[in-house]
């Protein structure tokens, strides 16, 4: 409608002059848009099955769907208040938001509550849902991403009360009219033979997520979505019934089905299947009850292709709509994204969807790159933009990533569906349509394991499908993720469990022992931890012998020190040094987003499958230790827990190629303290080991030191299970602490307590999908909850923008939380750029150059 709404008009959306108005969209029409979009979502077979399963039903009755749509129609009922209408119509009183307007109606007593309940026919809604009615109503009011604050304070909120009682309670009469229109649009909801709506918590939570998604889509007033109504338009309900399915199809919210029978493995991938991949083809398909599958296999064994093969089978069977692949590191996601797109192209041909790189700041969909424009718009680089604009909807906002048909992202993006943060339910509702693949699950992070467990609980409740993959999953984490057990079986039983193996919730285990190719790895301790010059000398000697070398440190400070020492030994112009845009550098997480893209691409170009021959050396931190398909002859690594060390070793001899003399067998030098004693780190953390460091479980690090001994040959995968259990199992760590003495026993006891506390922190900030929606308590600082404990980093603008050491312009830089000044007002903070790459934030000074972000506190890390 053109112009401004009148004093008696109920409007749902308003566009002011600054956005091309004035224009407005009637409230009832907007309510139809959202309810009709929800109806279209529930017409999708997979989502409908998930919601039914969450409610303990074999299928949803059409009348039950109509009831949910009627509730969705009422989602913006607070817009009947004169306080909300005053936002576009001056003179109606003090303005307020439509959710704040609900506060006086949500009182425990008073005539307004009675009038409100009568207007929406609450007695009927109670009859539909019983004890779950309040949870369903709160789920309706949470359509903006979280439950609103409905606390009413008599004096402070008196104007909200007047906004409903003005004009002889005219707003309440209008609310009743709105609800009656919903009854006319969804008459099936009020038939007597309709079964009650389920009152299970999972049903309530999933409905909340679907309604958030419907509201987001139904609020898009683009010309191909749900434009504002105009005089003379056809009936809105008929228009939305026709438009909503097209909108879902356009944004990719439809099932992906292969065009024909399942292709042979060689037709999807450019090599014959290996043991793990063949085993996934032998695994029985699950039924409607869903599935949780754990694939344990050594690094480099082809777990990625096995996962995509499993996704292919589930899609062909109509059990999932797509695939969300979650990996631990950003660099691994970037690399895997291309492999997923190749798989899609081979599987679907010309009809292939574009795979989304679900990493904030990248805007990569298929082969097209996007650039952020004002007002949350994205300009895409390719000529097909107009044809694919809709399908790239999910790529243009991180909260929508899970709505993509196929996506590769970090585990953080999946776990945001389990945290008490805004739009978590929307993320989760989108995720459960797909096969969720979580790569490199292992035992070192109790916090993230707790979050993962909460997300898996929702998948179990709604019959979803999850594939967990790991080369190094210890029994402790395996017991928690698969069985919810607080302690694993004894060490001996866990150590003897077959490996490699596929464990499935719906089928007997599949053992792969003896089917893989054995890879011997020669390990030797190098007493040079904290001695970058010695590390650089050993790396340089290997380079001189023609080897490709990866040096991995536990801290950025140690990595930078080694890089500088290496350049001093080899010379800054040595061709073997890792470079970006011909600038020697290293790889860690403390680079600007634009530079990280260049670093990730350069790593794959130099050390990937198709990298050039000849010697090369790169210094890095944990950013290169998992999931990446890179290949080296020698690794020099800081001491760390054995599951992490095995991940790092997975970068050795990953590909078949000609090796230099002396490196026909994979070699790993493990940096240990010069005196071989880790006891000082019980009191004083150093080298990333100790309290509040990357590896604070010092007994687990000591277990690795003992497994390496004075030198060892590990045969992988045959030794994987033994090594992981002896290095991470609670029985093993308790025995080490007891033998090492009282100081170790005290530390182990404290570490056990910290582990329990860490898990409790994860549980406390996660959504309990087993509790009614009405009991969900959002923390006051919900937006600052992190998927990785302590990750309260800040992305700050650069003032003025600065030139990247690798070319181009940088406008923002992320500062780790421990580098930030105390008491910083993040809302107004900006990094002041000074000469020579110097940065200033309050009284703190930093440097940003080809070695990344530095600070004098690095030395303490």
Automatic annotation (TrEMBL):
InterPro entries: Cas3-like_dom, CRISPR-assoc_Cas3_HD, CRISPR-assoc_Cas3_HD_sf, DEAD_box_RNA_helicases, Helicase_ATP-bd, Helicase_Cas3_CRISPR-ass_core, P-loop_NTPase. Residues 284-491 form the Helicase ATP-binding domain. Keywords: Antiviral defense, ATP-binding, Helicase, Hydrolase, Metal-binding, Nuclease, Nucleotide-binding. Residues 20-217 form the HD Cas3-type domain. It comes from the Bacteria. PROSITE patterns: HD_CAS3, HELICASE_ATP_BIND_1. GO terms for molecular function: ATP binding; hydrolase activity; metal ion binding; nuclease activity; RNA binding; RNA helicase activity. It holds the Pfam family Cas3_HD. The keyword ATP-binding applies. In the central section; belongs to the CRISPR-associated helicase Cas3 family. NCBIfam families: cas3_core, cas3_HD. PANTHER family: CRISPR-ASSOCIATED ENDONUCLEASE_HELICASE CAS3 (PTHR47963:SF9), DEAD-BOX ATP-DEPENDENT RNA HELICASE 47, MITOCHONDRIAL (PTHR47963). This is CRISPR-associated helicase Cas3. It comes from Marinimicrococcus flavescens.
């Amino acid at each position: 409608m053109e112009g401004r709404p009148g004093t008696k008009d109920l409007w749902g959306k308003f566009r002011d002059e600054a956005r091309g108005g004035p224009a407005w969209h009637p409230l009832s029409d907007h309510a139809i848009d959202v309810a009709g979009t929800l109806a279209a979502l529930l017409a999708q077979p997979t989502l409908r099955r998930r919601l039914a399963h969450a409610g303990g039903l074999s299928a949803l009755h059409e009348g039950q769907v109509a009831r949910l749509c009627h509730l969705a129609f009422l989602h913006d009922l607070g817009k009947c208040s004169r306080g909300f209408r005053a936002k576009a119509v001056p003179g109606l009183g003090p303005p307020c938001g439509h959710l704040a307007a609900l506060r006086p109606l949500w009182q425990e007593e008073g005539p307004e509550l009675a009038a409100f309940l009568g207007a929406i026919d609450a007695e009927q809604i109670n009859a539909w849902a019983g004890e779950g009615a309040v949870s369903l109503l709160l789920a309706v009011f949470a359509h903006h991403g979280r439950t609103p604050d409905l606390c009413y304070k008599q004096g402070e909120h008196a104007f909200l009360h007047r906004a409903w009682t003005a004009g002889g309670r005219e707003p309440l009469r209008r609310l009743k009219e709105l609800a009656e229109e919903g009854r006319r649009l969804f008459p099936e909801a009020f038939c007597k033979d309709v079964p009650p709506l389920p009152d299970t918590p999972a049903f309530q939570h999933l409905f909340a997520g679907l309604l958030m998604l419907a509201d987001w889509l139904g609020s898009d007033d683009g010309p191909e979505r749900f434009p504002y109504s105009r005089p003379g338009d056809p009936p809105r309900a008929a228009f939305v019934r026709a438009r909503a399915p097209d909108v879902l199809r356009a944004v990719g919210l439809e099932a992906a089905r292969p065009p024909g029978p399942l292709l042979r493995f060689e037709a999807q991938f450019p090599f014959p299947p290996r043991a793990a991949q063949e085993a996934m083809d032998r695994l029985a398909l699950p039924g409607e009850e869903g599935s949780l599958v754990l694939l344990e296999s050594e690094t480099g064994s082809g777990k990625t292709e096995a996962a995509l093969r499993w996704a292919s089978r589930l899609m062909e069977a109509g059990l999932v709509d797509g695939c969300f692949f979650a990996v631990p590191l950003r660099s691994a996601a970037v690399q895997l994204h291309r492999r997923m797109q190749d798989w899609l192209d081979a599987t679907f041909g010309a009809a292939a969807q574009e795979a989304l790189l679900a990493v904030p700041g990248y805007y990569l969909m298929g082969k097209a790159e996007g650039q952020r424009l004002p007002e949350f718009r994205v300009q895409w680089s390719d000529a097909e933009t107009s044809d694919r604009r809709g399908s790239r909807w999910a790529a243009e906002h991180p909260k929508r990533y899970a709505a993509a048909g196929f996506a590769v992202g970090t585990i953080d993006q999946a776990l945001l569906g389990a945290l008490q943060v805004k739009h978590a339910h929307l993320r989760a509702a989108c995720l459960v349509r797909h096969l969720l693949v979580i790569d490199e699950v292992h035992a070192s992070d109790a916090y993230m394991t707790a979050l993962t467990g909460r997300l898996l609980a929702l998948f179990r409740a709604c019959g979803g499908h999850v594939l967990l993959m790991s080369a190094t999953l210890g029994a402790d984490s395996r017991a928690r993720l698969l069985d919810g057990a607080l302690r694993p079986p004894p060490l001996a039983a866990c150590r003897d469990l077959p490996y490699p193996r596929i464990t499935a919730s719906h089928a007997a285990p599949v053992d792969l022992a003896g089917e893989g190719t054995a890879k011997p790895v020669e390990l030797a301790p190098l007493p040079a931890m904290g001695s970058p010059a010695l590390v650089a000398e050993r790396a340089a000697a290997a380079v001189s012998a023609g080897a490709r070398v990866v040096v991995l440190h536990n801290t950025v400070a140690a990595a930078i020190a080694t890089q500088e020492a290496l350049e001093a030994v080899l010379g800054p112009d040595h061709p073997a040094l890792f470079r970006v845009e011909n600038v020697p550098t290293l790889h860690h997480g403390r680079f600007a987003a634009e530079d990280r893209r260049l670093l990730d691409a350069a790593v794959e170009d130099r050390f990937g499958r198709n990298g050039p021959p000849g010697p090369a050396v790169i210094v890095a931190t944990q950013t290169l230790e998992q999931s990446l398909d890179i290949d080296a002859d020698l690794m020099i690594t800081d001491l760390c827990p054995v599951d992490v060390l095995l991940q790092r070793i997975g970068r050795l001899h990953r590909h078949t190629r000609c090796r230099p003399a002396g490196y026909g067998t994979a070699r790993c030098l493990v940096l240990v303290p010069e005196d071989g004693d880790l006891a000082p780190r019980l009191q004083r953390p150093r080298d990333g080991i100790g309290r509040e460091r990357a590896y604070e479980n010092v007994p687990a690090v000591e277990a690795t030191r003992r497994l390496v001994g004075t030198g060892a040959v590990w045969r992988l995968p045959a030794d994987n299970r033994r090594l992981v259990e002896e290095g991470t199992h609670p029985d093993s760590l308790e025995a080490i602490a007891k033998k090492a003495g009282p100081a170790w026993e005290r530390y182990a006891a404290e570490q056990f307590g910290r582990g329990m506390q860490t898990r409790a922190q994860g549980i406390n900030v996660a959504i309990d999908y087993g509790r009614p929606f009405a009991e969900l308590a959002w923390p006051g600082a919900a937006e600052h909850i992190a998927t990785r404990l302590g990750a309260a980093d800040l992305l700050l603008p650069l003032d003025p923008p600065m030139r990247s050491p690798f070319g181009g312009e940088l406008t923002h830089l992320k500062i780790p939380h421990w580098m930030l000044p105390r008491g910083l007002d993040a809302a107004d903070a900006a990094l002041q750029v000074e000469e020579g790459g110097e940065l200033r934030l309050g009284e703190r000074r930093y440097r940003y150059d080809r070695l990344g972000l530095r600070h004098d506190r690095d030395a303490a890390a």
